[in-house]
Amino acid sequence: MAISKAKKDTLVADLTELLSAAKLTAYAKYQGLSVADLQDLRKAAREAEVKIKVVKNRLVRVAMNEIAVYQDTDTTGLTGQLLYAISDSDEVAPAKVLAEFAKTHPALELMGGFSAEGNAMEQAEITTLAKMPSKNELIAQVVSQLLSPATDTISALSGGLSGIISGLEAKAN
Q1: CATH superfamily, region 5-132
Q2: 113 DSSP 8-state letter
Q3: Of these four, 19, 61, 65, 168, which has the most CB atoms within 10 Å of its CB?
């Protein structure tokens, strides 16, 4: 059933707003997924603050043409039945959500994406991005590294003089 022009205009306006604020947009083929599977994907995406949209590729192209950053973006990869994962808060969350879901649902195939700068990303790039740690994981790693010397000092002091000596010897090697 065809949708009305007013409905299409509303969809394009919503997409334009989402894509304008997006830090990353990832898209995937979803043919073969059931409605229940898509509901599970939407639930997982909501938990990661990612929005899932299933719209015609032509409407996505129209929305992208209305955004200055995306006007020269290559959209040749937008073919077939695609769903779009969009996040305005995390640069890797859309790719991670789709990649995690694809592990248990092989019918979902990560195809590509668009960065906030308007760059089109190939399948290999978006898959690599999905394997990266999230922003919160990176922050935790940095904090852990920053606290490491303090933790080592506290451990050495609580172990007495022999702990200090062995700690210094370990640092010297």
Answers
A1: Ribosomal protein L10, N-terminal RNA-binding domain (3.30.70.1730)
A2: E
A3: 19
